[in-house]
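re: ur question from earlier - yeah i can do the single chain one, its not a big deal. heres the input i used so u can compare w yours
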Amino acid sequence: MARNRNKKSFNEPQAEAGPAAASDDSAPAGQNTQSEISNLQSPDTQSAIPNPLSAIAQDSQSEISNLTSQITSDAPPPDTAQIRPLDYPRQELPPATPGRKERFQAIIRQSVLNQIHRHGLAAQEIEVCGVLVGNILHDSSGPWAYVEYAIEGNHAAGRSTQVTFTADTWAHIQSIMDRDHASRKILGWYHTHPGFGIFLSEMDVFIQKNFFPEPWQIALVYDPKANEEGVFLWKQGVPEAEAFLVEPDAPEEQLTAIVNKAKDVSSGAKNTGDFATLAARLESLEKRQKVLVFFMALVAVVALAWPIAVTTWLPDLLKRSTTPPPPVKLPNYNDPTSRPLNF
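and the output i got, formated as tokens:
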């Protein structure tokens, strides 16, 4: 229907051309032709003729926007309740993993947690990130996420209060997935909050919604300074903190506390990043100040000791340099007493 309207409007200027487009029968043919060309080239005439392709493009863009909006509004928000257990293979939990409940849960290997801890402890001044790799399975209690591996987000843009997955980061992750984990899924992501606590900021929620929107995808947050960590699961379109289980497949390298409730940052969420950045800068300035004070003290000591050293040792050095050495007494062979004795 949009195209029919465009054709109708495209034909209207031909019926409404009026005197401006009419030819003068009393004038010569050449003048009539020239007059028609001038009228068609005039700005008023060109603006009166619509562009059918432009109109079609606008209508198409409008239809696409409406369809996208309809799809977005019709799609239910992600929730772990949407996971159908029979869609995934059946497998019992690993041995010595207590705490199973009648709902979707995340089970993470201790070796994976150790890797994440090492990654976070190695860079405590900035946020670091990576992805969680494994499979979705189910048992008699329902579906569960089995996190077997982690891939560090190399080339990620890490700051003191924010981390970003770059194109190079995704290329690195995909290459490892294709090489080592072709039969597994990306179950979610992890990142650190050095000194900020366990919660998801607005940017973290944006990353979760746009890059990990599946109902079974999770987010793990680790605070290397407070030795805390927590997992967030989808609940009615909002990632919420919930306890997770640990498979003891390796010794625990870092003792951490599992947080079941996210830190409340509602009153100061907007200022959390600024405060954290300011605190990091103050800490850096304090370190620089200590180094500067040390060197200033060293310079002051040298400045005070130098005159004393000059006045104390310089005269002796000058005296020694100007005093002639004592004459060397050679033996007198004419004097019997000065001759060496031969035995």
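The chain has a mean pLDDT of 77. not sure if urs matches, ping me
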